[in-house]
Amino acid sequence: MDAVSEDLDLLPATRRALRHRIAVAQSEGRAPSVVAAVARGGEVVWEGSRTSVEGHGPDGNVQYRIGSISKTFTAVLVMRLRDEGLLRLEDPLEKHLPGTGAGEVTIAQLLAHTGGLAAETPGEWWERSPATLRPELADVLGEEPFRFRPGRRHHYSNPGYTLLGSLIEAVRAKPWDEVLRAEVLEPLGLDRTTAQPQAPHAGGWAVHPWADVMMAEPPEDLGLMAAAGQLWSTTRDLARFAVFLARGDERVLSAESVREMRTPAAPPEPGLAELGYGLGMQLTDAGGRRLAGHSGSLPGFVAGLWLSEADDVAAVVLANCTSGLPAATVAAELVAIVADAEPPFPQPWRPFREADPVALELCGPWYWGTSPQVLRLKADGLLELGPVGAMGRAARFRAEPDGSWTGLSGYYAGETLRAVRREDGSVSHLDLGSFMFTRKPYDAQAPVPGGVDPQGWRGIG
């Protein structure tokens, strides 16, 4: 992914639409510069930029500050600790990082911003003041760290991610940025993502709201707040990172773990388009398209990263202005431009090479009471349960060694599906989390809860 892939090259009309969108964004957003990238099929397929400097434009190798997209990197490190068995997401913070004054909050609540902590630090605006004003966690949290009872609601918290950064340092016994470099950046080849800026990098600017003049923003080091927003990166690196967030990489996190990060863990805020918050990832609906990623901002910079798993498309937008250019919105629109103009080809249908005879026996129509359902065996070895018609619950199931199946999605996620057999070995019914599925509606030959009317099915008369 070091260069734009020719094999996945976009159509000229699509490329022009992408260039036009960032040109409009830079002009209307009054940004000194904006740079963007799109990934599809696991590769960077487009890069573009727009700038106010004649004859010059940033490329995918120029660093910008990415603000709260740093939180997603921090969340990846926490998930690695979980996957290694060094902590559980249900653990209270106190178990691994004692003495903070917020120890009752669980690690999962910190990841999902449901810990009830304040949105910002006490004292001066932390993004625009020296980190020396907050040398200890007590300075970050203040005397009253909570705004709500933990677990009661989603409330975005920058201090919460400071606690996660300190948690990582406590468990690894190394600074947050060193752990990040060794465990995420180097394995994924993100060599242009750093805690401190490295040339070439953009300068941060504030653009006057009522006049076409600018003022330099101070590039403060965030100190303890680094895990919440310190990083500098490039569109090329972030496009790679977006591919990882969609597919996983066994050197860092499995596909199952990054899918867990993209799963809602906190309810959406009323009145907003968001679908909720995952574990270090924002979830949103953009024109009916489900996106996962994160926005970011620090004085002088705005950033947006979104991926659409269904379309296998991701987009990144970075700009060096404090406000005015909605980077996250533009990134979502870049995803839509590519996905709508060039929808992905479906994978070719292929038969199951060695169908499990037990699973094959379960395929076909079943009834939950009077609701018709169909169980299908897919080529990937999963069972897929879905309604006949548009209404009803659908889910996929993974085979377990004991002959049962575990739900992977939807209402039945985590629930167990079992085939209950008669003495002669034939299947009587399916048991799914206490729900009984029979081959006939209310099959009199199955132990239907509540029994079956002995008069059977009949009309009125």
Major beta-sheet overview = 8 strands, antiparallel, barrel
How many H/I helical runs?
A: 11
Distance between the termini: 72 Å
Average pLDDT rating: 93
Number of strands: 19
CA-based shape: globular
Order of the strands making up the biggest sheet: 12-13-14-15-16-17-18-19
Q: Whole-number radius of gyration? A: 26 Å
Poorly predicted sequence stretches spanning 5 or more consecutive residues: 1-7
Helix content: 25-40%
Polypeptide structure, described:
The protein contains eleven helices and 19 strands. By secondary structure, the chain is of the alpha+beta class. α2 (69-83) packs across α6 (176-188) and α8 (235-247) crosses α9 (255-261). The protein is globular and about 85 Å long. 41% of the residues are buried. The model is unreliable at 1-7 (pLDDT under 50).
Structural features:
single chain, 461 residues, alpha+beta, eight-stranded antiparallel barrel, seven-stranded antiparallel β-sheet, 11 helices, globular, disordered N terminus
